[in-house]
Each structure stands twice: as C-alpha cells, then as structure tokens.
C-alpha cells in the first residue's frame, strides 16, 4: 500500500470519531435529555417534535445548495477543507448550547430550542457534506475506497458506541460530582465536542487529495445542481434506499435507552449491551474488505439484510433475557455494519456515474444527499420516538413500573417491527434498481480516461 494511501486512510478516518460522537449525542439522546433530564411537559414535547421535523426538512432542502457552494469553492486549501473547519467549529459550539439548561420554560424554551436546533443542523451539515464528499477525491480505485471508507466507518462507530456505552455511567458519575444531571450532560457534551475538534484537525492537516486527477470544470449553477441529482438515476435510487435504511436504523437505536430503562428494567445493562454491539459492528467493518474481495456487493447486501431480519425477529419475540437480546443485537448490528459501508460505496460510485453520464463530477452535490438522508431519517425517527414515548405513557411515567404492558408493546413495535419494514423496503429498491457493479464501474473509468475527463496514474 502506498504511503499516501495509508496516510489518507488514517487521517480521513480519525477525523470522524468525534463527529459521530456529537451526531449521536444530538440524534439519539437529545429527546431523552429533554424528557428525562429537563422533564419537559407533554405539550412542550409535542412542539419540540414538530420543530425537529420541520427544521430537518428545511435544513435538508438546503443541503444540495451547500453542495453547490462547496463544489464551486476555489481556495489554496482546496474546496473541502475550509468548509470542514467552519462547520466543525460552529456545530460544536451549538451542540453544547443545546445541552445547556438556561432555566427557560414554556414558549421561551420552545423558541430558543428551535433557533439553536436549526442552526445546529445547518452548521453540522456544512461540515458533513464537505467531509464525506472529499472521499471520492482521495481514490478512484474501488478497493482503495473500500479501505478508506471502512476505516472511516470503524472510527465513526467507535465514536458512536463510545457515547452509547459511556453516557449512562459517565453522566451519572458527573451528576454526582456536580450534584446536577443537567450540568453533567453539559460537561459530557463539551468533552465530546473537544474530541471532534481534535479529530477534525487531524483530517485537515493529514489528508491529501488527488487534485490533479480531474479536469477543471465550470461552476455548478442551481439548474446544474438539479440536473446532477434528478438526471443521475443511480444516485436517486441510492438515496431512496439509504433513506429507508436510515429511518429504520436510527429509530431502533434511538429507542435503546428507553427499552432498557422501561422494558428490560435495568438501565445499567444498556451500556453493557452497547459495548457488545459496538465490538460486533466494528469487527464487521474491519473484515468487510476481506469479504468484498471474495463476494460481490449485491451478495454481501443480501446476506447482511438476512442477518438484520433474523436479528429483529429474535429481538421482538425474545423474553427479557440478555442471552436472547444480545444474540439478536449482534445479528442486527453485524448486518447493519455491512449495509452502512455498502451504502457509502454505492454513493461514492455514483459520482463517476454522474461524470460519465452528465459530464460533471459534482462530488459535493452528490454527497449533499447523505446529510439530507440522515436528517430526513433522523427527523422521522425522532418523530416516531417522540410520539411513542407520549402515547405509550413513558414520558408521564414517574417510575418504569408506571408504564402499562400495552405501552411497552407499542414501544417494541415502534422500535423493531416498523424499522424492519423500512430496512426491507430499502433493500428491494437497491436490488431491483441499482446497477453499478465492478464491470460497469471499470467501463465508466475507461470511457472517462478516453474522453480526457480523468487522469489515473
């Protein structure tokens, strides 16, 4: 492996540990913070649910515009790094503010929350689009991309599961020290933001792009942005499939802490469960390049989906026994890990497909659909979680035993059955509509070289 490739693998991947810590904190635990730490009322929570949904839809609609801005950026540092830095700084500051108790209630609380949440989405997306859209510029070799992407996803999952495993014991410890759980969450969030800033610095300093491999293209207009998305059929099918998967995945993970607190009856087991799943998912990502050398991506996606289906069914029907729940979780997260990296590779390959079909690469416009997908998926998942904790009686429960069996069943259906249907729908969209296999990808690269649109050493 070349030194430059090895450097990009580590510098790019390490940058996402803190990013995913921050993202997990907001998308998975903000609702829990509001309901179980601040103790907002049902009426306020309904308003917050609406704000999250509308803010994410509004912000998601702006993502392709941000992609155009990044694609049209020309600086001595390239077009990606300035926006990576800007987004990291401001999204970090706003994340801390979201988990800070200003003593507001009622309308004032809702207004301030809405402004902060909207600003968080815009600033985080600025970083997210520029960060991930840099991936296709690091290598045009599918196997090298898989190595870079796999390590980045491993680091992302290390960040994610560090938060998942550590949030209960660490916030409890900090809460005892500060004699305040609200201050505990603020300090914990600040620590995650510092990790994000350090990791992003590694990426900004260490990553080297292949800037000379691409011809200089004309600036992308808003009309060109729409064409880059709408006329790239493989990008659209990938986006639909990814959206359905993310809705299911985020919905399930967002219910985790509620499940162990109210259904399993032992909140402390959540961290142990998270460690097991984290190791399983990171292990799956580590061996993915080995499997990708022996099996086609379609075969891997099919096998991964089967694991997810079996895991969900075992989880739903299992008794409250950690042996069954743990086995189900391992199967689910092994499959989901493979699906996550495959989705990233599908999206990256649509960049060359767009260049081959439409004459322009548009990396950032293409990858602007990833945060768009994450926001729509997260918004719908947050809406499902928020509505469920209200309708099931969880938000109004003083102790876990206050939740009725019917309420717990409603939570299990929303956590397991509904997400499974979304994930299966995403698989079928891919299976019947996506057609960029290894042979077609090599044909595209050859054609691009012959046209002078691409220079490969």
What does the secondary structure layout of this molecule look like, with pairings?
Elements: H1 3-14, H2 16-37, H3 42-71, H4 81-98, H5 106-132, H6 142-178, H7 181-206, H8 222-230, H9 233-254, H10 256-264, H11 269-294, H12 297-317, H13 322-358, H14 363-367, H15 369-391, H16 405-433, H17 438-451
Helix pairs in contact: 1-6, 1-7, 2-4, 2-6, 2-7, 3-5, 3-15, 4-5, 4-7, 5-15, 6-7, 6-11, 6-13, 9-13, 9-15, 9-16, 10-16, 11-13, 12-13, 12-16, 13-17, 15-16
Please, could you describe this protein's structure?
The chain has 457 residues and is mainly α. Helix content is 80%, strand content 0%. The protein has helices at 3-14, 16-37, 42-71, 81-98, 106-132, 142-178, 181-206, 222-230, 233-254, 256-264, 269-294, 297-317, 322-358, 363-367, 369-391, 405-433, 438-451. The two termini are 15 Å apart.
């Amino acid at each position: 492996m070349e030194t430059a490739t090895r450097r990009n693998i580590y510098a790019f991947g390490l940058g996402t540990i803190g990013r995913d810590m921050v993202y997990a904190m907001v998308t998975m635990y903000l609702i829990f913070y509001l309901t179980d730490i601040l103790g907002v009322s049902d009426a306020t929570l309904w308003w917050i649910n609406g704000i999250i949904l509308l803010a994410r839809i509004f912000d998601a609609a702006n993502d392709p515009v941000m992609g155009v801005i990044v694609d049209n950026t020309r600086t001595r540092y390239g077009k990606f790094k300035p926006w990576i830095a800007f987004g990291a700084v401001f999204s970090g500051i706003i994340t801390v503010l979201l988990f800070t108790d200003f003593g507001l209630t009622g309308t004032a609380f809702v207004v301030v929350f809405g402004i902060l949440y909207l600003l968080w989405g815009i600033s985080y997306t600025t970083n997210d689009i520029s960060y991930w859209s840099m991936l296709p510029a690091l290598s045009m070799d599918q196997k090298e991309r898989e190595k870079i992407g796999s390590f980045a996803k491993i680091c992302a999952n290390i960040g994610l599961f560090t938060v998942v495993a550590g949030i209960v014991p660490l916030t409890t410890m900090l809460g005892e020290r500060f004699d305040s759980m609200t201050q505990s969450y603020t300090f914990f969030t600040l620590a995650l933001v510092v990790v994000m800033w350090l990791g992003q610095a590694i990426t900004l300093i260490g990553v080297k792009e292949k800037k000379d491999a691409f011809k200089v293209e004309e600036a992308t207009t808003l009309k060109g942005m729409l064409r880059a998305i709408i006329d790239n059929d493989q990008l659209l099918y990938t986006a639909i499939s990814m959206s359905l998967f993310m809705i299911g995945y985020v919905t399930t993970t967002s219910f985790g802490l509620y499940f162990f607190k109210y259904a399993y009856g032992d909140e402390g087991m959540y961290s142990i469960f998270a460690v097991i799943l984290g190791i399983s998912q990171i292990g799956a990502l580590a061996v993915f390049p080995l499997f990708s050398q022996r099996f086609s991506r379609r075969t891997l996606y099919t096998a991964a989906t089967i694991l997810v289906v079996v895991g969900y069914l075992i989880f739903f029907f299992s008794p409250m026994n950690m042996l069954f729940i743990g086995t189900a979780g391992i199967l689910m997260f092994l499959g989901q890990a493979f699906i996550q990296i495959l989705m990233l590779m599908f999206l990256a390959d649509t960049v060359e497909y767009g260049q081959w079909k439409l004459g322009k690469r548009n990396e950032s416009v293409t990858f602007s659909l990833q945060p768009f997908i994450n926001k729509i998926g997260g918004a719908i998942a947050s809406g499902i979680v928020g509505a469920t904790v209200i309708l099931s009686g969880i938000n109004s429960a003083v102790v876990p035993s206050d939740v009725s069996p019917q309420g717990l069943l409603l939570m299990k259906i929303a956590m397991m059955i509904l997400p499974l249907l979304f994930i299966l729908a995403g698989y079928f969209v891919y299976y019947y509509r996506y057609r960029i296999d290894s042979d077609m990808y090599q044909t595209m690269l050859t054609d691009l070289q012959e046209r002078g649109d691409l220079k490969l050493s």
